[in-house]
Amino acid sequence: MIIIIGSGMAGLACAQRLAAAGLSPVVLDKGRGIGGRVATRRVGDLQFDHGAQYVNANGAGFAAELGRLSVEGWQDGRGRTHSVGVPGMSAIPKALGAGLDIRQGVQVTRLQQDGDGWRVEAGCAVLRAARVVVTVPAPQVAGLLGAGHPLVANLAPVRLAPCLTLMAAVAASAPFHRPAGCR
User: Fold this and answer.
1) C-alpha to C-alpha distances, 138 to 68, 142, 159, 170, 174, nearest whole angstrom
2) Which candidate, 71, 144, 76, 63, places its Cα nearest to that of 110?
């Protein structure tokens, strides 16, 4: 068994490639929905894309993948296409995850090498895997492998930039101010 921890874009892309090679990966994710930072939150009749606002294809493979998904794109004036999921950003990971074995609400708490494979602890459950792919943010890896694992030391220089998201709904027109001379 091959286990992928994290159902964000990296985990889903990895699972797709493994499935295309004839393997049967299992994707584990602690969240209620897949997609990681490519997410849509619904509150009543409202919908907020509170993670990535859009995605860009830097390679031909991802561009082709976006072409088969339900996305809309626009040019930014510099020749770059930005794509958004329809009806929300979560449409992209949902389409990428179609047909994959994705288990949500499963929080992996520990990874441990076990002979030729891995012991994956998730709550009271213990899974065995020949291979494990970890796609969680770098700061979370130490909690899975332990601070002394060599991978943790290799990931130490990785820094994440903080980001804030404000989700707001107004009942009236948005109060935008246009600078003088703009229409």
Assistant:
1) 30, 8, 8, 37, 38
2) 144
Q: Are 41 and 168 in contact (CB under 8 A)?
A: no
| The model's pTM | 0.84
3-state SS string for 79-109 = CCEEEEECCCCCHHHHHHHCCCEEEECCCCC
Instruction: Give the model confidence (pLDDT) of 109-131 as tens digits.
Output: 999 999 999 999 998 899 999 99
The domains found in the chain, sorted by start residue, are: 2-155 (3.50.50.60)
Question: Which tokens go with 46?
Answer: 């409202």
Model confidence pLDDT, tens digit, residues 86-113: 888 898 999 999 999 999 999 999 999 9
